[in-house]
Amino acid sequence: MKLTTIATTLLLSVVQANVVKRDAQFAQGEPVDATGKGGPILGGTNKQIDLQNPDGLGAQSTDNGIVPNLKWSFSDSKTRLLNGGWVREQVITDLPSSHDIAAAQQHLKKGALRELHWHRVAEWGFVYNGSVEISSVDENGKYEVATLNYGDIWYFPKGVAHTIQGLADENEYLLVFDESNFDAVGTTFMVDDWLAHTPKDIIAKNFGVDPSTFANLPTADPYILPANVSKSTVSGGGGELTGKETYVYRTLKSQPEPVPGNGGTFYKIDSTNFPISKTLAATFVTLKPGGLRELHWHPNAEEWLYFHKGHARATVFIGNSNARTFDFQAGDTAAFPDNSGHYIENTSATEDLVWIEMYKSDRVADISLTQWLALTPADIVAQTLKVPQSFVEQLKKQKQVLIK
């Protein structure tokens, strides 16, 4: 072999070696970028978590500064097993960045009851599997008994007495509360727990019966208990809660919001179309594969999110050059700071991304970056961003919301 051929072969080998070395390795769970910056993880690590969070390995060169953790997975929560179902929560001790909202996933078997109770905070629920019956009574003796299926929502104002029963073989729903420290004493009150700690002669006098009626009163609240599916009906009192007073909203029987970007569907559920929901506003969003929830921020509240299906990425900008990118999958929750700029991208090429947004507010509000720039004098924007004025002049003046 000629020397020139040998030299060429060696040179190609070196070049190829350098190319391999400079391949970004985030998808393989290693913090190595395309320039060779970084290096493999040699110490203890959870490879599956690394693979699920490539942006946590430094994949985005635009990330900068210190941004607190804004993500929590329900899979990291402690699951409480009960006779008739289970519950797992996300409260402020799990996700300290969520200052306004706590949440839970709750599961009921057929007939199982989330026992009679009330809260000093508002409760919002979204059914995502099976079917449940809610029963509630307000301070005027008005009541509501309703069956809820996939996509249906309930909202109980603080103090409203209520219960939930599973109707299908297996039932599950998301619970959201307008209080981040939901486990604090004095937040939830169970009726049997109350009566168990009240003298029996007082209970008997209150109801006008013999004390023996309460011989089998539970000494500890069961939280969720097995039961038979209710066959009773309710009448009298102050009458049924209907119209603007109803605690139930049928999301999928309502019209979604306009989405000029044609990237999916966007349902808004707040006091403008669900009048009783005065302290919690929500959206139910489906984003097509590869789609983008446009760059925006919320002027009126912190944003809490629950990812129901699919895979996502979001970069959150909290000001002063601080930004961090997070990866999300089904079961993850997140809390984006009040007024922080962000987007949400569906990182799947084949699967829809489905999530719920919550705000401790009476309404959903956002400001679109594109719309803001389009409705600002074009020469000012061009000089600020160092971009052609022609680019600014063609920006869309209508929110795109979800971009395909």
Automatic annotation (TrEMBL):
User: What PANTHER family would the database entry show?
Assistant: OXALATE-BINDING PROTEIN, SLL1358 PROTEIN
Which CDD domains would you find in this protein's record?
cupin_OxDC_C, cupin_OxDC_N
Query: What is the protein's given name?
Result: Oxalate decarboxylase
Q: Which organism is it from?
A: Microthyrium microscopicum
Question: Gene3D superfamilies attached here?
Answer: Jelly Rolls
Q: Which UniProt keywords apply?
A: Manganese, Metal-binding, Signal
**Cupin type-1 domain spans which residues?**
72-215, 250-393
Where Mn(2+) 1 binds, per the record, is at H117, H119, E123, H162
Residue stretches in coiled coil: none
Pfam families referenced in this protein's UniProt entry, alphabetically: Cupin_1 (PF00190)
SMART domains, per the entry: Cupin_1
- List the active site: E357
The source's domain of life comes to Eukaryota
The record's cofactor note says: Binds 2 manganese ions per subunit.
